[in-house]
Amino acid sequence: MLEKVEAKCRAYLQQKMATDAAHDMQHIERVVLMARRLAELEAAELAVALPAAWLHDCVTLPKNAPNRQEASRLAAAEAIRFLRTIGYPEAHLAGIAHAIAAHSFSAGIAPTTLEAKVVQDADRLDAIGAIGVARCLMVGGAVERPLYNPTDPFCQTREPDDLAYTIDHFYRKLLKIGQTLHTQAARDEAVRRNAFMHAFLDQLRLEIPS
Question: In the chain, which residues have pLDDT < 50?
Fold first, then answer.
């Protein structure tokens, strides 16, 4: 049953996904892959975690939108509407809605179920490591943001300002994500991904004036 539901989720998303550099179809597929892995390791309910992972970004808003913090709640409502159209079991819908609503940083909703923790962890892991570096630089380029502050590239004497400089995003958010993860499997993965980000920043220090 889940395979058919996942295929329907994919088809639905392919019709409506925005070409947002941070929320494209490849991001969804990576989050689903990680959510499946975490759910299996943590014994979470796949019938809740996987649909939530597929649909967690079915509604997205620009990062500078005044109602940005509502995006995950809107996505939860839209996901439930869609799942009802395909006859998904009603017993799973509340758990899916909570997992989607709670995945977002900006919403500020604490995940209270194992499945919601799995989906949030999977989404946050996609912001760090090699893929996190790539996404960070891609988004910075898309909004034409300078790569780094020329006088203090690594925020040694100033507060990070990631609206002004892309590299600042590592210090304001990305290097801290591991501390926010819930499941042991995700925390273990974050250690590996953080090591890559530190290595990237160490190499960058050798290549630019600082």
Answer: none
